[in-house]
Amino acid sequence: MEKLVRIVEQKAHVARNYTAQDGTQKTFHSMGFILTDGLDEFYAEMTGDMARDCQPYNKDVVHVMQGYIKQRSFQDKNGNIRYENQIYITKMI
User: Fold this and answer.
1) What whole-number distance in Å separates Cα of residue 73 and Cα of residue 30?
2) pTM of the model
3) Taking residues 61-77, what's their average pLDDT?
4) N or C of the chain: less Cβ packing under 10 Å?
């Protein structure tokens, strides 16, 4: 997916430590963005080295965002299966 977007809000960098499947300690980096394309406003997340190295973006210009959308299912407290979309940023210029 590729969209022209403006940044409404750039969240702070978050680093979380975790234990990988091989038992080594690793760090997961993420940074959230609230973006708009002029019609819709949505949350998208940047992860990995890109999030770790990300500098503040200029909110006054239009950016090209490349990313992908995943869905995940979960069970609510009433036992119903619900769905949620998650947007991941792979490039933003």
Assistant:
1) 21
2) 0.87
3) 96
4) C
